[in-house]
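Private note to self, pasted from the team thread so I don't lose it. Backbone tokens:
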């Protein structure tokens, strides 16, 4: 039996629905805007039930020469309720960022906090390689020039993972 242990890493791509809420405008969250998302996760396995690591991910919107990105760097934990299945629950927290840029550089950039929750399933393709479908929800609290605001992204992804 080749269970969960050692180093692991994953690269995933997908689609994410982003919404923004400027606190002082009284309008609530905007309509969802669905664009591409990506994430890279690396870490170690503490037990067959627990993995810890780091994740860097972003949602990207390119429109008429302007690129908007919302993303972050988080410490994450993945909990596997069963040793025999690949189902896992994920939670993480870290530094979030929202930015606008064009071909000449950064136009605007805000930073703050991001927290995330997710679920996924490791589907074995080979001894060390897995296909990993995921659903994630990330909530951002950002400090802007015109006041604090919130963004949230609900994403569906598919990734390739390696475990040693």
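Design output:
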């Amino acid at each position: 039996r080749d269970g969960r242990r050692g180093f692991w890493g994953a690269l995933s791509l997908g689609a994410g629905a982003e919404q923004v809420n400027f606190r002082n405008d009284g309008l609530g969250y905007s309509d969802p805007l669905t664009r591409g998302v990506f994430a890279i996760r690396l870490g170690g396995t503490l037990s067959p039930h627990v993995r810890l690591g780091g994740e860097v991910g972003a949602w990207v919107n390119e429109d008429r020469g302007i690129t908007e990105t919302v993303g972050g760097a988080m410490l994450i934990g993945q909990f596997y309720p069963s040793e025999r299945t690949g189902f896992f629950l994920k939670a993480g927290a870290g530094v979030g960022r929202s930015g606008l840029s064009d071909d000449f550089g950064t136009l605007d950039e805000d930073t703050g906090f991001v927290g995330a929750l997710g679920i996924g399933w490791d589907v074995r393709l080979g001894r060390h390689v897995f296909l990993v479908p995921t659903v994630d929800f990330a909530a951002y609290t950002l400090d802007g020039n015109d006041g604090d605001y919130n963004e949230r992204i609900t994403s569906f992804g598919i990734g390739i993972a390696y475990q040693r």
